[in-house]
Amino acid sequence: MITFIWICLVLVILSMMGLLYRVFCGPSIPDRLIALDAIGVMIISATALLSILFATRFFIEVILLIAIISFIGTVSFSKFIEKGEIIERDRTSK
User: Fold this and answer.
1) How far is CA 28 from CA 19, 23, 37, 40, 48, in A?
2) Measured between alpha carbons, how far is 94 from 2 in angstroms, rounded to an integer?
3) Backbone angles phi, psi at 89, to 5 degrees
4) pLDDT digits (tens, 9 = 90+) for 9-56
5) What is the 3-state secondary structure (H, E, C) of the chain?
6) pTM of the model as a whole
7) Which of the four pLDDT bands, split at 50, 70 and 90, describes residue 4?
8) Rounded to whole angstroms, how far apart are CA atoms 88 and 68?
9) Which residues of 44-53 are buried (b: 16+ CB within 10 A; e: fewer)?
10) pLDDT of residue 66
11) 65, 37, 62: which is closest to 50 by C-alpha?
12) Which end of the chain is more exposed for a tag (fewer CB within 10 A), N or C?
């Protein structure tokens, strides 16, 4: 069982390296954004595998924190790509 977890961890790390290539050499900005989001998922899965490997529940809180930060980053980047700004200000007042 432990060997299988190590194999999965190595495969996750290899996929993260492939996604890093897509982030740096992606053909378009949305492709890079999707790769960044997938890297967030891979980090979450690697943390979960480490949690199983070390038989601890401490990493569950870390997984939740990484998921929240990844979601906020993805939404912010998507909004910036679509509209060119993240926080909209009302410029029509006064």
Assistant:
1) 14, 9, 15, 19, 31
2) 65
3) -115, 145
4) 999 999 999 999 999 998 988 888 899 999 999 999 999 999 999 999
5) CHHHHHHHHHHHHHHHHHHHHHHHHCCCHHHHHHHHHHHHHHHHHHHHHHHHHHCCCHHHHHHHHHHHHHHHHHHHHHHHHHHCCCCCCCCCCC
6) 0.81
7) very high
8) 22
9) bbbbbbebee
10) 93
11) 62
12) C
| Rounded CA separation 24/33 (Å) | 11
Report the amino acid identity of residue 9.
Answer: L
Question: CA nearest 9: which of 33, 59, 40, 44?
Answer: 44
Residues 61 and 66: their CA atoms lie apart, in Å, by 9
CA distance 44 to 40: 6
N residues, the chain: 94
